[in-house]
Amino acid sequence: MYKPLLLLITLFFNVSLAQNDSIFCQQLVAVKQLVADKHYQPKAINDSLSQAVFDLFITNLDNDKDFFLQSDIAQFKTQQLQFDEYLNTDNCLFIDSFKTVLAQRIKNTKTILESLNTQTPDYSGGLIMQYLPEKEYTYAKNLDALALNIEKVVALKVLKDVLNTNHDIQYIKDNFETLEVKSRLDIVKNQLCVLEEFTTNSGGLDRYVKDAFINAFLQYHDPHSVFFNPTEKLIYEGELSSNQLSFGITTEKNKEGQITIAQITPGSAAFINGNFEVDDIIISLTANGTTFNTLCVSNDAIKAFSNKEGHKTIAFTIKKKNGTIQTISITKTKIKVEDNAIRGYLIGSDQDLGYIKIPSFYTNDESLNGRGVSSDFAKELYKLQKQQIQGLLIDLRFNGGGSMQEAIELIGMLIDRGPVTIIETNQKETYTIRDVKRGTFFNKPIAVLVNSYSASASEFFASAMQDYNRALIVGSTTHGKSSAQGILPLDIEKNLGFCKITVETFYRVTGQSHQSIGVIPDIKLPSIYDNLNSQEQYYSYALKNHSVTPTLKHNPLAKLDYNYVINNHKQRLKSDSTFTNIANSNIKLKQSIYNKGKKYTLTIDDVLKNQNNKTALYNQVFQEQTNQALITVNNTKPTQQLLDKNPDDNRLNQDVILQLSKDVYIAESYNILKDLIKISQ
């Protein structure tokens, strides 16, 4: 009686699978064609590609080696030189073998986790833990080894949780059995929840594995080309809210179940604060004494908590890209169309220099006031010039780039006519972009502050300032990205998704490139982020550096002799240990990331000791280098008049001023700029 229904269900299931595989096949064909037609540097589909795509694909599937066994990798390697054949013959059925194994390992992981609901890990000292740098991660030898790894991870999470929620060690020891059970059940539940969302949300495991392969193919061509399904494209491009109270943070949930920052609205509280970055992981939100942990919760629940009417101020506990944990409190603000997304300040006791931080090169489409960063910059610079500033400090630290056109507009304000960049297309044709407007908006000395996280459009701006001898570049060598991407559909008529793909590269007006080497500052300042291998040159398959022949000569200003400025800078550093401490802290941070840690047992005492040592290290490394003001910072008169009418914005602004006044890089850049003014005169 049930056979017809069963047959119908089976047929429907098979048809659904066939349709899904058909879509994946179409996507592979479309991605291949798009890369061949549009990518700046398409690569041949051969054994070299096959080996590289295999490695990237396995990494995408199990980045931290949490699921696969060594036997799985050995099985997969039988196909590592066949991917070029799959691609050349449009064979998409190979994906099923990887999906099947991953599904089985996730099932194994769930079973092991569920067993820990009733089995207590060994807290007597029998479990040994050791921090390993990423390059030393290994796959589990077998299921028993996988189970042991999971037991260690859960035990460590339990001990950390118990220690973090109660600081009375004797109380913890006396009541450990009760505290342990409650914590373990919660942690196991959360881990299972992450796995459940991993396998069911946004197309589930099927979509995850297929997207991982498409991205591996794109990543082999360069690290900035990536596949978006239609939903991901909307998230990437972002949809800004209307003028309402907001923190200015758009969140999303990544494949690991973590809530991350997807977008920061220009001009918002988070944008002005300057400590938030895209891809920061949000660990918890605290408002009015209530802490909301983000593990195993939906993105909608995060939005509901942050948008709750009574939650005007929230403390965001976030995990940065370097692994450090920070807690940052911000208050919702209303962004009005007449307000600027960026703000200029007067620095120095004489209020004789201007300071403008540009967190990103946003466009008029991305800003609630309908203006791009160049327009906002001009408005703030006008205010500063009305107060007779003698020089300007432009802060591009942690500026990941944005609109090249906005950067071109900004360069045009600060130089006379001439070329600003050379573009090379995927057809290896070059053309020069020029600033055709005669004259400058500001002609006094400029210093530009950069670091290793200044990338793309910010590097483009800094390099033009350097090539025209228009500004002194101060800080760390920049990221090293000189490629441009465009978002293109895989198929105009079919809903196959999109690719953000590298379509061209750009060069300095000299014909040289900062690709993979960065913009080298005229005066280097030690940074806590030095030598952390975070720049472009350390990315797998990053584009190589090369040059082109310029066809249009640029006319730089006369090159100044910077020896006076550099010597004075060195003399100041001799009597100030701050930058020496920063350099020493950087060495300790690098060692903590790239060296093996000491082995310790999973006991209350050993975990507490290890946790205290790590906290002490990070407090030393990332603490404010000084708790006192190093430089006077003031608002311009027009800005202060607006702030006097807006108490909330005024309080936020005072926090920003306090941060700026204690910033050792701004203080030293001020001194450098003062010396630059002297030699300019």
UniProtKB/TrEMBL annotation:
Species annotation: Olleya sediminilitoris
Name used for this protein in its record: Carboxy terminal-processing peptidase
SUPFAM superfamilies in UniProt: ClpP/crotonase, PDZ domain-like
Domain Tail specific protease, residue spans: 323-526
Signal peptide: 1-18
Key words of the record: Hydrolase, Protease, Serine protease, Signal
Classification via Pfam families: DUF3340, Peptidase_S41, TSP_NTD
